[in-house]
Design goal:
Distance between the termini: 50 Å
Largest sheet: none
CATH architecture: Up-down Bundle
Strand content: under 5%
Length: 314
């Protein structure tokens, strides 16, 4: 999508021939409606009892990440490329992933009901916490401005309302939605790709990437890897200190260290009204998303192999 946007930016730009703004706006609401439709209240209740685990995951997602990035920004406060810093902080303020977190926990042999609970609750908490953190960050920098009340209201209408409606209709249509999971995933991915395409079309059309070298982008990717492993390691240490079981420790580190590309792309349409900057802001998120999937899948398989070898030894 980035390459297509680079080659033909006029097609997906704000004043282009395609109504991508309207398509993606409605698409976002449908994504969250179908997400709510597949959200089983029974599975959520099954994970309610592990409150210490939930606390570690949510605090890691919405407190540890932003504080680490904020401290890093204080240590390296260069005024160059403030939009990239905005994008990195946006990564830190986002909720955890849903599907990939549960998949990684399943592969590694963790607590799956708690993983489903934490990933799902994280998505709902993010409707409020992500704009709150971004409002705080933007108020302390001259990067951009945002109307916090208006943004939360839009997210509630565009995200929370469809999710709630989906949950209410789960009993009637949940089984049907589960059967259509692969088609719904294709729909989700199509909308996300359209958002990425239109965002980068606008950025390329406005020549927003001028001044960024390949070395700087490589350094940004390295910073995303460091951020992932730093959070991963800190959660592992904290989970061990709290005496978590192996299953709960796995759930904590995988759910607490992941960030959602789905929520990041769809929220960017609401949080950043200036479409010119969205492509740059999303760049750290796309790097983090790709790198976290690679790193987490390798780590999850290693944990599964270690558990299998220990069982064989016994």
């Amino acid at each position: 999508m980035i390459l297509l946007a680079y080659a033909w930016p006029a097609i997906g730009a704000e004043d282009g021939p395609l109504p991508l703004e309207e398509i993606t706006t409605w698409g976002v609401s449908l994504i969250f409606f179908f997400y709510g439709l597949r959200l089983s209240p029974t599975k959520l209740k099954a994970g309610l009892s592990d409150w210490r685990l939930h606390l570690v995951v949510q605090l890691s997602t919405f407190l540890l990440f932003p504080l680490l990035v904020y401290v890093a920004h204080l240590l390296w406060p260069g005024s160059e490329h403030q939009l990239l810093w905005l994008g990195v902080f946006y990564v830190a303020a986002l909720p955890s992933t849903v599907s990939s977190s549960v998949v990684m926990v399943s592969i590694a042999g963790g607590n799956i009901p708690s993983a489903i609970f934490n990933a799902s609750i994280s998505s709902l908490i993010g409707v409020f916490m992500t704009p709150l953190w971004m409002g705080l960050y933007m108020s302390t920098s001259s990067t951009a401005e945002m109307n916090l009340g208006s943004i939360i209201l839009k997210l509630m209408v565009q995200v929370l309302l469809p999710v709630t409606l989906g949950v209410l209709l789960h009993k009637r249509f949940g089984a049907f939605a589960e059967k259509q999971k692969s088609r719904l995933r294709l729909f989700d991915q199509t909308i996300i790709l359209l958002i990425v395409y239109s965002s980068f079309c606008e950025s390329f059309a406005r020549q927003m990437f001028q001044g960024f070298s390949a070395g700087q982008l490589l350094l940004l990717g390295l910073a995303m890897v460091v951020l992932f492993f730093l959070v991963f390691g800190l959660i592992h240490v904290l989970s061990s200190f709290l005496g978590f079981s192996r299953e709960n420790r796995i759930t904590a580190i995988f759910c607490g260290s992941k960030k959602s590309l789905v929520h990041g792309t769809v929220m960017s349409k609401v949080i950043f009204p200036d479409v010119n900057i969205v492509g740059i802001v999303l760049l750290p998120l796309m790097l983090y998303h790709a790198l976290q999937l690679i790193a987490a899948s390798v780590l999850a398989q290693q944990m599964a192999q270690k558990e299998n070898s220990e069982r064989n030894d016994e």
